[in-house]
Structure formats: structure tokens, C-alpha cells
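name: query_chain
kind: protein
chains: 1
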Amino acid sequence: QVQLVESGGGSVQAGGSLRLSCVASGRTFSSNAMGWFRQAPGKEREFVVTIRLSGGNPYYADSVKGRFTISRDAAKNTVYLQMNSLQPEDTAVYYCAASRIFSIAPLTTISKYEFWGQGTQVTVSS
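structure:
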């Protein structure tokens, strides 16, 4: 099992920035990819970004490309999501997820991820 704990959410004004963190514990060596998803009120959970832990470029949703950046600190078992130029439509609960699936193609669907954090709220006001 892999346990994931997110932090760093909060309230900001449009144009502001936040950095989310996701700390993994447990059988972290079994994970091959990490991802961030978000769920706005009344909407389905949607893909934000994914990264293969073995290397390679991250893959971003079009809606966040150029504004969000994923990074990781392997020594700390931590994945970060730097969010810049935030807009009200970015308001959502953000979830970190881990997958044991090895895939060349980016993992962008919820069903590919077995382990999830509890989520952290991001609120962007206009």
C-alpha cells in the first residue's frame, strides 16, 4: 500500500500562486507514476498532470499547461505542484494519486491510479 498526504492548499486571488505538496509513504517503490487530479463542486474529477517516476517529461492537461509545473524530490518521496496565474476556474479539491502501472503513454484516467490522497482545497477568487 501507498499512503499519500497532500498539503499546501488555500485561498488566493486570481493571478496568484500556490504550491501543493504530496508526501508518499509505505510501499513507494511500487509506484511507477504520480498524478494530480482536481474536482470542482458539481463536476467530475479531472486530470491535471502526470509524471513517470522513472523519468521523462510530465504530461499536462491543456487547461493548466504553461501555468502549472509538477516536480518531485525522490529523497523526500514528495511530489509538488506549482500553480501560477491561478484563475477562479482552478478552484477545486486537488488530489494526488499514485499508480503501479508501467506505461509509456501518460496515465490520464482516474482508473489507472490505485492510491489517492485525501485532497486539499484550492480556492481562487476573482
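note: The first strand starts at residue 2 and ends at 7.
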